[in-house]
């Protein structure tokens, strides 16, 4: 992994659009001018994969390391059992220890693609806050650290204040989340000389609470940096689509669907996403700002390829880009398309669309078919009662399409 000077980190964060708020940029810059700084981001284990809403934080850790600083990935094996109230209208479902462990092991694999782990000075390390939270003595914790926390400040945290203003229940369990996250920062500061916590803008209050605890309990200076909460230009939240989350792990979402998500980026978001989610030089990205109309599709393909290379593999990006080009020019099909194995060739067209997760209900499928929006082997079929048979399968495969952008294969076994 090529390196940049330590002091370049904040400049990179600024010019690529990563910074929403920063606590003390001048002194953080001085720290980085003086040498390598240790920084961390925490990730709770609420699902077996992170989705692309977390990709901006992962890229921040990657740039931290590329600029010669040391990243810590903090797995929330402990805090997941409490649940972060930030951005939530109600408490998260509580997960079992076994489920949290399963999720954690799956999430770990994501970071190996973005960071270099090892024993060298700026190699990344991964730690789990369960190591110090699981056996935390409550009375000792209150006695040692309780006086450092102000209830007045805690109830004014955005995550707490919104619930109280809306008269939505906030359990005492969730109220403790900010204290535990602050304690994480203190532990990392003491054990790893960690000086920087980063996260999304919804974590600002929790991060500042941690900075205060580090200062009061250890007399050390600490820093916080948050990224903007990303939405698309149409206002939808990053990482969520009508068909579900865009997961980073391959076993949660196929390479094809992952690539297609970025290929279908809204025109107004392309430049922003190229800066945040790729490592293309800014000078190269700015050239795309002049692109209009159909030309912008070239930039979208570059975006899809670059993000897929980072998150999945170079091979996946190349194969899918090639497959997509064939699909839209020559109507050719290959095995990079999402596929489902079936044992019976005689399947209703409606069921075929549902099996490939294009639609969830029969009613939606009927409306799509009647509206000429569904195809079998690139031929529009508007008969909602159509049943597939052996004649539709070519070499044991049939291509099903939803509109112009969603395609899948049924493979007869």
Characterise this structure.
The structure is a single chain. The protein has 413 residues and is α/β, with parallel strands linked by helices. The protein has three domains: 220 residues, HUPs (Rossmann fold, 3-Layer(aba) Sandwich); 76 residues, Orthogonal Bundle (Tyrosyl-Transfer RNA Synthetase); 74 residues, RNA-binding S4 domain (Structural Genomics Hypothetical 15.5 Kd Protein In mrcA-pckA Intergenic Region, Chain A, Roll), CATH 3.10.290.10. Helices cover 43% and strands 14% of the residues. It is built from 18 helices and 13 strands. Strands 1-6-5-2-3-4 form a six-stranded mixed sheet, with helices on both faces. It has a five-stranded mixed sheet with strand order 9-13-12-10-11, covered by helices on one side. Helix 13 packs parallel to helix 15 and helix 17 crosses helix 18. The chain is globular and about 75 Å long. The protein starts with 7 loop residues before the first helix and ends with a strand. The mean pLDDT is 90.
Question: Descriptors for this entry?
Answer:
Structural Genomics Hypothetical 15.5 Kd Protein In mrcA-pckA Intergenic Region, Chain A; 3 domains; globular; alpha/beta; Rossmann fold; Tyrosyl-Transfer RNA Synthetase; 13 strands; 6-stranded mixed beta sheet; 5-stranded mixed beta sheet; 413 residues
What is the strand and helix layout of this fold?
Elements: H1 8-16, E1 21-22, H2 25-34, E2 38-44, H3 55-66, E3 70-76, H4 97-114, E4 125-128, H5 130-133, H6 138-145, H7 151-154, H8 158-165, H9 172-175, H10 177-192, E5 194-200, H11 204-218, E6 223-227, E7 240-241, E8 244-245, H12 255-263, H13 270-277, H14 282-285, H15 296-311, H16 314-329, E9 339-342, H17 349-355, H18 362-370, E10 374-376, E11 379-380, E12 397-402, E13 406-412
Parallel strand pairs: 2-3, 2-5, 3-4, 5-6, 9-13
Antiparallel strand pairs: 1-6, 7-8, 10-11, 10-12, 12-13
